[in-house]
Design a protein that fits this description.
Layout: E1 4-11, H1 19-28, E2 32-40, H2 51-64, E3 68-71, H3 77-87, E4 90-93, H4 94-105, H5 109-135, E5 143-144, E6 147-148, H6 149-185, E7 188-194, H7 200-208, E8 225-231, E9 234-240, H8 250-255, H9 257-264, E10 268-274, H10 279-295, E11 303-308, H11 315-326, E12 333-335, H12 344-354, E13 358-366, H13 370-378, E14 382-389, E15 392-400, H14 401-411, E16 417-421, H15 430-437
Parallel strand pairs: 1-2, 1-3, 3-4, 7-9, 7-10, 10-11, 11-12
Antiparallel strand pairs: 5-6, 8-9, 13-15, 13-16, 14-15
Length: 445
């Protein structure tokens, strides 16, 4: 039998009720939501909600048989203590609920360490407050051997945090070296991100021919997964990253540094949006996600929006959402359905077109070097055209600028010509074709 819980949110004037999202989180954690309670008022220093609402909450607990209360609002240690004392059941807030979900879904060592670090940092602040309450005589039952048991636990937490941070530094060093090697390899990288539940993993599975875990619940993905994908001939590293959530506590952002770092180091961020939801909800989630991206130093010019779940959206809602998204993004918006594969070819085309720093090179090489040259080019570049002219072969390809320069230097001694062409230049342009088939060498660059 799942644990029965009651959800609570205290709202300020004009603040949006978020209990629908808290319910989704609670159900993802395995709880059964039996009741909800809201109150509009300024925060109470003792209980967060007012004293009268505490009484109402106690009655609800008795009526529903709930054994746990979950607040959307972040609670202070003294508020948690006071509420537990008054209600006689466990009381947690959204932060602890998210940590519970993370703990259940964490797979990698790094994810587990990050979750433990976030939990211990949270407990550290609680331990400090408990020590203060003890010393004021307001918290009993922690005495032992002439020394506060909380003091001993506080020292343990501090020591454990230090050890976890040391382990994470080592893991981050390894990951940083991996990012550096990836950069030196010259492959473009794309990070899939967006609000939790937008369908990132479903899209990742389709683009990467993968079979990652999908259940439609929040935070199905905690550990970043990266796969090499051949996208319209361009080799690209695609990463499935952790989903965002509105008002994600800053401590969680800090804890998931390496997961979010995957987004920061990518060449392009593909931001998924569920356009089957009402426009106000879409606006809220996009603003929340874009705010997190901005905090990571990612400019809007590096973000491409994919409007997902168009197959589930009502026509009027879809039209309003697409119009709204187009005003938010300079790279444009691609409507798709990851579930049905709708418009995924157009999405791949737009991804390749949006990759920053693309350049094109035209190499003219002796025919006997064709195989070795093509292997080198195809491993990092997109081959656009190959033209055979007697003993010479012309290869037009597209890739990162530094990769193009390395290939030019490597094969320059045997090339008849090397020509740089803007990335926007048409592949089958007549002028370029004449240049490629001309007898004389082109000017080297």
């Amino acid at each position: 039998m799942p644990t029965r819980v009651i959800l609570v949110q205290r709202l300020l004037d004009g603040e949006q009720c978020m209990l629908h999202e808290l319910r989704a989180l609670a159900e993802a954690a395995g709880y059964e939501v039996v009741s909800e309670l809201t109150q509009k008022r300024a925060p109470d220093s003792r209980y967060n909600i007012g004293r009268g609402k505490v009484e109402e909450l106690r009655e609800l607990i008795s009526k529903t048989g709930a054994s746990k209360v979950i607040f959307f609002n972040l609670l202070k240690p003294n508020q948690v203590y006071n509420l537990r004392k008054e209600l006689g059941v466990e009381v947690i807030d959204r932060y602890e609920l998210i940590l519970e979900i993370f703990a259940k879904r964490a797979g990698s060592k790094e994810a587990k360490l990050q979750i433990e670090l976030a939990r211990l940092k949270r407990e550290l602040s609680f331990a400090r407050e408990y020590i203060n309450l003890q010393k004021r005589g307001e918290l009993h039952g922690f005495m032992g051997g002439g020394r506060y048991a909380v003091d001993a636990y506080y020292e343990y937490v501090v020591s454990r945090i230090s050890k976890i941070e040391e382990d994470l530094r080592a893991l981050r060093k390894t990951k940083s070296m991996r990012w550096l090697r990836r950069h030196e390899a010259g492959l473009f990288s794309v990070a899939l991100t967006g609000y939790t539940g937008a369908g990132k993993t479903t899209l990742f599975n389709k683009l990467a021919s993968w079979s990652g875990y999908v259940d439609g619940k929040p935070f199905a993905t905690l550990s970043t997964k990266t796969r090499l994908v051949n996208m319209l001939g361009m080799p690209i590293l695609i990463s499935d990253t952790i989903g965002f959530i509105d008002s994600l506590p800053e401590q969680l952002l800090d804890a998931f540094y390496t997961t979010l770092g995957e987004i920061s180091y990518s060449d392009l961020v593909l931001f998924l949006v569920d356009v089957s939801e009402n426009p106000k909800e879409v606006e809220r989630k996009v603003i929340a996600g874009m705010s997190i991206l901005s905090s990571l130093g990612i400019p809007p010019s590096k973000v491409l929006i994919a409007a997902n779940k168009v197959d589930s959206a009502q026509p009027s809602i879809l039209e309003a959402n697409l119009h709204q998204l187009e005003t938010l993004n300079s790279l444009g918006v691609v409507p798709i359905s990851a579930r049905t594969n709708y418009n995924l070819n157009e999405l791949e085309k737009k991804i390749v077109e949006s990759l920053p720093g693309r350049t094109r090179k035209l190499l003219r090489i002796p025919s006997e070097l064709f195989d070795v040259t093509m292997r080198e080019i195809e491993s990092k570049c997109r081959v656009l055209e190959v033209t055979i002219n007697n003993k010479w072969i012309d290869i037009l390809f597209e890739c990162k600028k530094d990769v193009a320069e390395r290939i030019s230097k490597k094969f320059g001694s045997v090339c008849e010509s090397i020509l740089s062409i803007p990335a926007e230049y048409p592949v089958l342009d007549t002028a370029s074709h004449e240049l490629m088939t001309s007898a004389g060498p082109a000017e080297q660059s």
